[in-house]
Amino acid sequence: MSDPEDKPSRLHAGRIDGGSNDDNGLIGAPADFVRGALADRDPLPGTTGFAGFLAEAPIDDGTEPALVRDVLGRQPLFIDRGVEPGGTANDRLPRWSTDPTDLADPKPLPAGAVLTPGATMPWWSLPSPEPAAPSAAQAAVDRALRGVVGDLRASPTDDVAVAFSGGVDSGVVAAALPRAPCYVAGFEGCHDIAAAREAAAAMDRDLRIVEITHDDLRRAIPAVAAATGRRNAMDLNIAIPLFLVAEAAAADGFDRLAVGQGADELFGGYSKVVEPATDHRVEADTVRGARDETVATLPVQLERDVVALRAAGIEPLAPLLDDRLVAAALELPGELLATPAERKVALRCAAAEYVPAGVAAADKKAVQYGTYVSREIDRLARRNGFKRRMDDHVGRYIDSLCRESMMDDHSL
Known about the structure:
The chain is α/β, with parallel strands linked by helices. The protein folds into two domains: about 5-120, no CATH class; about 135-375, 3-Layer(aba) Sandwich (Rossmann fold), CATH 3.40.50.620. The protein has 15 helices and 13 strands. The strands form three sheets. Strands 1-2-3-7-8 form a five-stranded antiparallel β-sheet. It has a five-stranded parallel β-sheet with strand order 11-10-9-12-13, sandwiched between helices. Helix 5 crosses helix 6 (about 235-250). The termini are far apart.
């Protein structure tokens, strides 16, 4: 595999809907570029993710029509379990879409997979390199981040806003987009709004606050559940703040929302990777192994986040999931991922070139807690008779809102 630092990222974005397999239909990268990645089996060819249909995909010794999804699942792609492929040369695959609501019975294509008329095959897998020496590993992250920031600063960004929580991830993304307004969502008094205000002042940035109310939650819960196909409390607690930020940015006329997704997984941002040998939440007993477990969760998480953002009318842009940063992160030794004193060590060091020291060092709460969304959905559930003594009281409340929303839709 050639050096990802030599591959400028293809910062393409957009949404496609499947159905007709007559032409190439790809999101995230040009067809010829993806064909090259298929032919080379290169998992990190220099994109921020791709998915879709290729009329002629180079598979083994020939070419076939195929559906593809990148190795980290950064672009979702769904197939319909209930529709059999057609019989013509250009209609030999199941019905598919980047939006699960287009399909009667959607199932995600696995990350890194290729689906041909004959089979679904794992095609790409993430590299598993040995850890590099600390100085070389840090230099690689520095170079990769410099390339990503440089590409963003050189690209047209008048249609981009930034989801901004005041931490190092969103701080670096905002620094790469110096003219973009920053948006933060949360309930009054929450951690994320306070941190975003402090960071925006330090960076001299325009901050727009989306103050969430209980009415917003009652409206957003069924909307996000319908868009993502998920009703569990954890997924909705995470996706709803993103959805509400995206709605606000879209209402202000922005087409894209830049997010910091992926940094915690790639760079050791979770507490469970610090001392994994004594942490029941991971199976690995090394920092690198625990980090790899969190990276493996990205495809499922990104399906939720990308679909929720698109449901709000905006296209996500996730520069910290650029192949160059992914490749550099995978070579980090454990000491540059997480220690008892600091998490995301290498990323914070690299970010110091772009953000104030306080932003580079800032602690970040998980979005569901930092915005108070998890707390307030629980409060709403209890106010509506779903007490904590009940099994899955929040899930039952979510189901009740979704049923009410469906009944309202049917009555129109």
